[in-house]
Amino acid sequence: MHKQSAILAELFLSMMKVGLFTFGGGYAMISVITDTCVEKKRWLSQDEMMNLTVVAESTPGPIAINCATFVGYKMAGMMGAVLATLGLILPSFTILFFISLYLDQFLEIPLIAAACRGIRIGAGLLILDAGMTMLRKIKGKRQPCLIAGGAFVLMLAGNLLGMRISSIVLMLAAGAVSLALYAARYAAGRKGGAGN
């Protein structure tokens, strides 16, 4: 019982720290969640974190909250899921609640406006870090590299041509391509097996 309480407290405090010190939304949090859950706490392997990120992005709700909920559930069941989720959202909710009371006055302070510009750059770097970590993990695997490269080219072309390509459409297309390649390999394997 004491061990379970310790795990619950550690989940809550770890996710609260992620929520308190990460700016830029869910994608920026992925890098910090990975550092906490994979590198420091060893709650997940790198492969589990990659799979979790894909599932969290593919299901309804914010990606960081989905990740926290999954990690909490894996470590301590339903109570772990609830506490990890609360730990992640509580700092943001509290800070935004108080900021919203004085939003106009808050943004007029030059020091705050300058800090917000810096935070935007930092958030972009966190998102880039999460993407680079995932790309390093798939290095050497031909199919994921081709799909990631194709998605990057489409997004870049869309931005350069002023077209907005939905990330949901790209994810569905990547899933469809992966399923088609899997089906082709499966059919070829069955055909080859039948011939033997």
How would you characterize this protein structure?
The chain has 196 residues and is mostly helical. 86% of the residues lie in helices and 0% in strands. It has helices spanning 2-21, 26-40, 46-58, 63-101, 103-107, 110-138, 142-160, 167-195. Helix 1 (2-21) crosses helix 2 and helix 3 (46-58) packs across helix 4 (63-101). The model has no long low-confidence stretch (mean pLDDT 83).
Secondary structure elements and pairings:
Blueprint: H1 2-21, H2 26-40, H3 46-58, H4 63-101, H5 103-107, H6 110-138, H7 142-160, H8 167-195
The major β-sheet equals: none
Strand share of the residues?
under 5%
Secondary-structure element order, as H and E? HHHHHHHH
Please report the total strand number as a whole number: 0
Helix content: over 70%
How confident is the prediction overall: mean pLDDT? Answer: 83
Morphology call? globular
Q: Which residues sit in consecutive blocks of at least 5 with pLDDT less than 50?
A: none
- Rounded radius of gyration (Å): 21 Å
State the distance separating the first and last CA atoms. Answer: 57 Å
Structural class: mainly alpha
Query: Count the helices. How many?
Result: 8
